[in-house]
Specification:
The chain has 95 residues and is mainly alpha-helical. The chain has helices at residues 2-25, 28-59, 64-94.
Length: 95
């Protein structure tokens, strides 16, 4: 719990430190922050999916195939949403 508060505090500090530069420089910094947050969200999402799948397999080893299939489908959806987010950030960077 303490680590999550430290992470959120660091994130807020970085966002407030970069926001004046974003206003002066244009949308380049905002797109970079968006890409970083997108990659961070993808990593957290995939980590939670893997944790839940391994916990489920540990509780019910006979259902490992079904759990793995669902895990791969959900992980693909998370990756797809993350890639769309990265593409949108790149579009805003170059347009």
């Amino acid at each position: 719990m303490r680590q999550s508060f430290a992470f959120l505090f660091a994130l807020v500090v970085v966002l407030f430190a970069v926001s004046p530069a974003s206003a002066a420089e244009g949308a380049g910094h905002a797109a970079a922050i968006g890409m970083g947050l997108s990659v961070l969200g993808i990593g957290i999402g995939l980590g939670l999916i893997g944790y839940a799948a391994l916990s489920g397999i540990a509780r019910q080893p006979e259902q490992a195939g079904a759990i793995q299939g669902a895990m791969f489908i959900i992980a693909g959806l998370v990756e797809g949403a993350g890639i769309i987010s990265l593409v949108l950030c790149l579009v805003t960077l170059f347009v």
